[in-house]
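Researcher: I'm preparing a figure for a lab meeting and need a structural model of a single chain. I don't have an experimental structure, so a prediction will have to do for now. The sequence is pasted below. Please return the structure as tokens so I can convert it later.
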Amino acid sequence: MAYVDEDASSGSGDDVNMLDGHKRQAGVPSNSCSGRKRGRKATGAAIVDAMLEIAAASKMRASAIAKNEERFSINKCIKVLDEMQGVDERIYFLALDLFEDHPNAREVFISLKDEKRLPWLQGKCGVSSS
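Model: Understood. Here is the structure written out token by token.
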């Protein structure tokens, strides 16, 4: 920034008139460029850190979702269904359709106690227990 020294001979720290009409003390820099650059670098670093934290959180969330989906996968449901006693072929194939079309049904099926699974499947498949 340019300034005009009213008393160029003094150099005693007197006020100096700036071209924009403001005064500042002689010998004191107005706005330091290095201070602004340091501020920008700090802000940039903070933004980078925040973005890295967001990316890490996103990866953790994706991992948790994948584990949850794996826990209630069709493959897992079929394994449990294969281990069950008393499941006739009609219920077996209706259950496969149910698991394919309704992810929430897979979660319920896996979460149920063993003795509750067959009656639940029969109810969902519209088959009465015999």
